[in-house]
């Protein structure tokens, strides 16, 4: 009761204050009692009504404030990779004032929807395994918003074993080679590796896509690019490059004229004094007893034949004085008759000198005088056998990794000769560093070196090849007197002076090998044909991009530069008031002059690429596309890539393609690419073109041979005009009147992309959801097959004749 009395008393006081408040308002001229009296005339107390009205007003005010300060909407976040493909399972977290508002995972399409407050900036954090975490922000200005987040894949590295194989065989290359690697998917990756045993360990970035390889010096690679995602084993097939070559065919028979198959046939290069030189190549005779040797550098050669089965004695063309000259583009024939005269077998067993345990896998090389005949590996008992044709002493060179190299002399015998070899240590083994230089003291790469004993000329150890620094090291050699025989096929040979190997001194040898020089005559003119006096002409090594020589043109705009004959160079030409011009590379010939004409332009107005025309033997065949091309003929398409002043590209490049727009494979095209030349850093070629999103498919058809398209890349190119040449072949079976399309475009990259022609779908991006960068818009020039009379100035007509009687 006391509580009720208190409430009544409180209510009465509040009611009195209420009426006092009304009196105050009424006294100030506000007729509030008209409303109050009307309410109370209905027997309704006005004070409770006023309280209810006040509460309603407060509620409305609160709702209005909430609408302003606590309004929310939705945000649809789309998470995609750099190729525009949605990323499923990405975590999307919204954060406000360091507190998590929402956390969602993206669906199959890479989408997630979260609730966000209107008018407030929130932080977004997107994470996904295999991608770099992305931070962003968003302020909602509408109830339903959208935002696209692009994530970059995490760059990890994995190790690949690269097997460098002799082309057309399953043998690892056992010579020095230096290989430069790059990636089609990661333009910043580049690494150079060397090997002497054919095995390279390479750390490759996970975004490499396709691994592209190029070689320095006298080797070329048959499969320059490998699609890594489909390659468990990485094999590179290499073969020797030569400048001027011919061919050799050897016919092997017995005394009756019957062909002898299966024997080892070696093509040898003799020294200038007609002593045993270096092996060019060894092959086995076919079922018809013949052996072809292709791409043989011009020079003198002889034949050595060895029968592993022991039915015939060995043949040495040097002893028989049968030495022939191999000439350019001609076939040289050798006829060899083997004698059935076998003296017996040389038998050898290899043991560890201390433990007397048999050594398996030791390499034993058989030589007669200084001529190598065969190499065999020891079996599980450490044994080898060689069939020989004479009862004389033969040389055997024993080489096992971790042991001193040993040489022994043996005659045929029915018993095994035991030979112990000693483990190599710092105390008992020597090494010899050989550096080969040319006449000017510059290092010479790809020189073949043989270490021979001074006493009898027997080779000691394996043949080595110098690297780009002109150096090679013979290891695990015993103390003694030796000399080095050096030869570079097509350029010369030399024997060093005697060198004494001793543990008490530094064993080094510098050998000068005259290579000779070729010349390039540069004629520099302006666009009107007038000579440019004082133009700077740089001869640049295309393998290393280092300047070999730099000269200025005379009053006729000419300059002759001498360059070592084994170099491939391009010219970089500049002059005041002109933009720089960069030529295509040229391989020089010894004691010959190559002529180059360079046209300098005053200015480059915009980034562009132009097809200058189609050429045959440097004669312009067609500039406008109205002239027809002949079946079975190879032509050269010449392009100019122009980069204006002020450009700062990380890379620039050109895309060249042949075939109709709807054609996806080289087999469907009447025109295809056989070679591309330019002063570029890397090239990618492929036989398929699957527009607009088939880049993964086309990456599996990358080739080093004939191609449908080629992408060439210049790293950090400066302003100037870059010459590019592409050899294109018209198929023999192409029909008269068939159209031949040549496509071309250029790009420059510095953050975003600039393209010529412009691609409105890609814009300045590398790729988009609808199109990948490989399939960017390209310019087209159309030619035709057959008589040029069928073509007019603006079009090329096609006619057909039908026999109406059939």
Query: Number of folding domains?
Result: 8
Structural class: mainly beta
How far the N terminus sits from the C terminus, by CA atoms, comes to 126 Å
Strand content: over 45%
Q: How helical, in percent, are the residues?
A: under 10%
Uncertain spans:
788-806
Task: Write structural notes for this entry.
The relative contact order is 0.06. It contains four helices and 59 strands. The longest helix is centred in the N-terminal third of the chain and has 26 residues, at about 1-25. It is mostly beta strands and about 800 residues long. The model is unreliable at about 790-805 (pLDDT under 50). A hairpin with a 2-residue loop joins β25 and β26 (about 370-375). The N and C termini lie far apart (about 125 Å). Strands 40, 41, 43, 44, 45, 47, 48, 50, 52 and 56 form a ten-stranded mixed β-sheet that branches. Strands 49, 51, 53, 54, 55, 57, 58 and 59 form an eight-stranded mixed β-sheet that branches. It folds into eight domains: about 1-65, no CATH class; about 70-150, Immunoglobulin-like; about 155-240, Immunoglobulin-like (Sandwich); about 245-335, Immunoglobulin-like (Sandwich); about 345-420, Immunoglobulin-like; about 430-510, Immunoglobulin-like; about 515-600, Carboxypeptidase-like, regulatory domain (Immunoglobulin-like, Sandwich), CATH 2.60.40; about 625-635 and about 650-790, Immunoglobulin-like (Sandwich), CATH 2.60.40. About 10% of the residues lie in helices and about 45% in strands.
